[in-house]
Write a structure and sequence with these properties.
The protein has one helix and nine strands, in the order αβββββββββ. It is mostly beta strands.
Length: 133
């Protein structure tokens, strides 16, 4: 009888430890080094394991004149379960976006903790103009 009780206690403890682990968030697109044309429609996508009920915030980060990474603004928000956000490249409500190197950061809150993922290296926004000599 003591062994059975011990097994139930062990499984209960293990379940509470696993339940306390935060979800794993991964940015799937844009990939590091990708090139997206200004004005094109592109999909920012992610995965969350396990799926949760929360709001995903999608933000754009770029470089200032001193080459420091700074926030450009929130591009939008979606339910985490959606897994994607359709973005017209360059459309950022709080700031003008020019061709250059950028990062996407996505995040949500769970139990008061901010879960964040994003590009490790920049992706590129390119001009939609062709210059011919």
């Amino acid at each position: 009888m003591k062994k059975v009780a011990l097994v139930f206690i062990l499984f209960g403890w293990l379940g509470s430890v696993l339940a306390a682990r935060p979800p794993k968030l991964t940015l799937l697109a844009p990939q590091d080094g990708a090139s997206w044309k200004l004005g094109s429609r592109q999909t920012i996508s992610w995965s969350v394991v396990p799926e949760i009920e929360a709001t995903m915030y999608i933000t754009l980060w770029g470089y200032n004149s001193a080459r420091q990474v700074i926030p450009f603004g929130v591009l939008g928000e979606m339910p985490c379960k959606a897994g994607r956000f359709l973005w017209q490249v360059g459309n950022c409500p709080s700031r003008k976006v020019n061709p250059g190197d950028y990062f996407i950061r996505i995040w949500f809150f769970q139990g008061g903790e901010k879960i964040i993922a994003g590009n490790a290296s920049p992706f590129h926004i390119t001009s939609n103009w062709i210059i011919m000599n």
